């Protein structure tokens, strides 16, 4: 039996379970973990679409997609059905400098409230279904907060057709600020410059698909998880 490794653009020519996946790092990590649990072979393709086509054509037994792409492809292809969730996921948090403890604590209270009242679920559902989501209007009585983000994360942080920054992270940030009584100002910055920007006091927080790592946590504060990004497994009906 072959090891659960990733090979590019190979057909299923062996008596082996094949897991198709695009070459995006998060997708590959999720697919490798799933393939290992099944004793399967992981085969990478250039795009999600190529991986889905391979599965529909019988070249793979499963395809691993992030939750947003999976939702879209399942709607577009009647023969593609959800199989199970991957154990691998990504947890996103807001990030602050260490001297911003009070604001971080306030964000945690807001995140908890927005989870409990279903607001965050409503945001994700609207974005995934390409429906309009209207954010709550902030009183703005506590002043302004500046958020930095990099709009390169498809449905999570991206530009809409009018060049306005949108996505699940942006809507959640707006709802958090509205809940706390702040007016949100969004600044776009390259991902690699995030931490220097908040470190220099040019922004109050980062909310742009940022994960907490041990190295980052040595220098910055992180909020509780505001969104978990899942990866799912699909197969032929």
Please summarize what this structure is:
By secondary structure, this protein is of the alpha/beta class.
Largest sheet: 6 strands, mixed
By secondary-structure content and strand pairing, the structural class works out as alpha/beta
CATH superfamily of the largest domain: Periplasmic binding protein-like II
Mean pLDDT: 92
| Beta strand count | 11
Parts with pLDDT < 50 across at least 5 consecutive residues: 1-5, 7-13
Under the CATH scheme, the architecture of the largest domain is 3-Layer(aba) Sandwich
Q: Span between N and C termini? A: 26 Å
Instruction: Assign an overall shape.
Output: elongated
Give the strand order, joined by hyphens, for the main sheet: 1-3-2-4-11-5
Query: Roughly how much helix do the residues carry, as a percent range?
Result: 25-40%
Report the sheet-strand fraction.
Answer: 25-35%
Q: How do the helices and strands follow one another from N- to C-terminus?
A: EEHEHEHEHHEEEHEHEHE
Count the DSSP helices.
8
CATH topology of the largest domain: D-Maltodextrin-Binding Protein, domain 2
Number of domains: 2
Write down the Rg. 20 Å
CATH class of the largest domain: Alpha Beta
């Amino acid at each position: 039996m072959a090891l659960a490794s990733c090979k590019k653009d190979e057909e299923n020519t062996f008596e082996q379970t094949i897991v198709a996946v695009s070459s995006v790092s998060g997708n590959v990590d999720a697919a490798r973990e799933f393939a290992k649990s099944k004793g399967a072979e992981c085969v990478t393709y250039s795009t999600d679409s190529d991986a889905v086509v391979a599965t529909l054509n019988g070249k793979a037994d499963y395809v691993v997609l992030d939750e947003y792409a999976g939702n879209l492809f399942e709607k577009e292809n009647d023969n593609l059905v959800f199989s199970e969730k991957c154990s691998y996921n990504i947890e996103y948090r807001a990030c602050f400098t260490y001297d911003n403890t009070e604001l971080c604590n306030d964000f945690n209270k807001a995140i908890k409230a927005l989870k409990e009242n279903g607001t965050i679920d409503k945001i994700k559902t609207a974005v995934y279904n390409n429906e309009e989501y209207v954010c709550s209007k902030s009183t703005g009585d506590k002043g302004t907060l500046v958020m930095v983000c990099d709009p390169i994360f498809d449905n999570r942080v991206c530009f809409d057709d009018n060049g306005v920054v949108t996505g699940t992270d942006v809507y959640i940030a707006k709802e958090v600020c509205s809940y706390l009584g702040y007016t949100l100002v969004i600044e776009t910055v390259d991902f690699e410059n995030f931490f220097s920007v908040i470190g220099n006091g040019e922004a109050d927080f980062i909310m742009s698909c940022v994960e907490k790592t041990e190295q980052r946590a040595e220098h910055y504060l992180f909020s509780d998880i505001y969104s978990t990004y899942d990866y799912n497994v699909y197969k032929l009906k």
